[in-house]
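Summary for the steering committee. One of the milestones for this cycle was to obtain a three-dimensional model of the protein with adenosine-5'-diphosphate bound, which we needed before selecting residues for the alanine scan. The sequence and ligand used are listed below.
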Amino acid sequence: MSIIDVAVPVPLRQTFSYSSEQEVAAGARVLVPFGRRQLVGVVIACRDNVNLLADDDGPVKLKAIAEVLDQSPLFDSTLITLAEWLSGYYHHPIGEVWSTIMPSKLRKGAALSDHEPALMLSDKGKSAEAVAALRGKKQQQCMALLEPGPVATEEVKAQYSAAVIKALQDKALIETTIINNPPAGDWQHFTLQQTPPTASTEQAVAIAAINQQPGQFVPYLLDGVTGSGKTEVYLQVIEPVLKQGKQVLILVPEIGLTPQTVGRFERRFGVTVGVLHSQMTDTARLRVWQQSRRGEIGIIIGTRSAIFTPLKSPGMIIVDEEHDESFKQQDGLRYHARDLAVKRAHSEQVPLILGSATPSLESLNNALNKRYTHLTLQQRAGGASHTQLKVLDSRDQPLHAGIAQGLINIMRSHLQQGNQVLVFLNRRGFAPAVLCHHCGQTVDCKSCDRPFTYHKSQGRLQCHHCGASRKMPTHCGSCNSDDLQTSGIGTEQLEQGLGKLFPDVAQVRIDSDAVKGKDKLINRLDEINARQYQLLVGTQILSKGHHFPHVTLVVVLDCDGALFSADFRAAEKLAQLITQLAGRAGRANKPGEMWLQTDNPGHPLLQDLINNGFSHFARQALQERKLAQLPPMSSQAVFRGEANDSSQVTHFLQQVRQCYSVSASVAQGSFIGPLPCLIEKRQGRFRFMLIMQCQQRGALHSWLKHHLQDVESLPLASKVRWSLDVDPVDFS
Ligand code: ADP
Ligand code: ZN
Ligand code: ZN
């Protein structure tokens, strides 16, 4: 008889003990009775000394596990340790940590399997006449999908309705089959498919530094301006790692995971790259997860949660665009994949590369303190020149479509030379508000107390905080006047205005309204690079990672909001955005310029960026954080609460504060708040936060841990929806 400690997916900060006839190794899943349910848990430990559990009343009776789901462990000791660390560091229940780590099929108890049901063309379906005779377009497309060979049923279902599939089955054009997970090929014995470019001196220094210390944990910050050839450095340092039969895990931001990125790695090495992102079907995710675990693929590229992918023989971890906010999970287990990558690389004893043109102040600080090896690339690769940053004072200038006349002239001259111009405005829709000309009242979303955004193409109002949507009213809700006017400019209106200013110039708008679905974005980007458009208008989708070699001018409209934000990270975020945007221009030997239109041309942040560049700005910002004792010079955690009744939330957070006040002096901790979140109300719920701060990370953690149970047992804790966020990056 064994005693088994199981992490069960419930919001309780403990494991649960069960008895088992057989020994079950840590890292295997078991089905256990829990209350009236049966849940899938992960074994954390297995002991055989039953006496351990004897107390005054004799041996404690344990419930028996219901079923062993894995005969051998699914997770190795590194992942088990990582889960324990996550639970401790983020103060999150261990069972829920495991729910986050596991692919959803495994969470639901599915068995690992080498084969899966699939659909394929029947003999009849392979004849061209049969397909030509099909009238439904969807049916034809579905046939085309199966043309090259069988596809997992679940993946077909993700793209085509059950009706389409059934129609084809009824016509006997397709039939079911079983496919084995395809072996991903002999990746250890690849031959380079392309001759790599000769590394620049800076690249060569970085590559040599990384190659010198293989097989051990060394963290590097690859701090290289946009287009300096960071990806080329990754490609060259990966090569010897793969040759040794070791795997490389690459994390990229949500938006950076394009076929182009993946293609670059596949083309260089001629091997299959395992891709993991949230839009994949559960089956496809699990397939890559298994291949990686068995060591059948050498390169795995994925977004945030790919950091949990098991690796049979880990060789290196890379986090590209490490400053990107999409690495931080904003609900449930609020982990930061970059920080986790550091932790994981350390326990796997492999090198870690954090790459960015605009490193987070956290990582930069670690590099300046010599905790990370700082590698810099200051020159753009292939001789491309740097983009010049300039500020345009928009006060007292006539504006057309929100753009100052002076800037329109500059745009015209770039367009006349046949170059592309990118206009950035981080606000989608036609206008950010609609107001009554008679009484001045804005049309607000009642559940968020914020103005609706007007979307002219749909003739509707949309709340950008909660997504609520309604028809554009004809009359003011307060005074019944019919004189409603829009206020401010969004991308939809900008596009329209630019169309009037430059009627002969082909224009494309890239924002989440105009570009729905990944494929569409990729098609637009290809069209841009094929020079089908000269004017590109868009939101921050345009700022990330894409190369626009023919863009010579970037115009940024309306960055003034961020200059005066209450979020202490706003300046850092704005500087990153501006620098990343500047990096889109002037790549292929065409010098680029970037203009920031602002009412605050003398603002120190803008002046510093323009005169001294991002790396100077970042060092200045670190100094300021030091003076203000803000992260990364201190550690923060935030309790957030929301409820329909605002006094309930503030009372709750005040009580949380009282719980922690008792030992604030021991922890040398301080509080900010309770105060409203930057978005004070959303979907009818009022939102407040309590920020806790300590000089020492360790002190913060023991402080947090010490009173968390008191917080959980507060009567209001069950009335208010609350969460704890360690190392918060966003106060909205
Ligand atoms: P980053 O990842 O820093 O944005 P990339 O690696 O994508 O930079 O490089 C930018 C461009 O320069 C790419 O087209 C790349 O092929 C090219 N490039 C990179 N390194 C070199 C080099 N050493 N010589 C010539 N071209 C290079
Ligand atoms: Zn009115
Ligand atoms: Zn709303």
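Key point for the committee: The mean pLDDT is 91.
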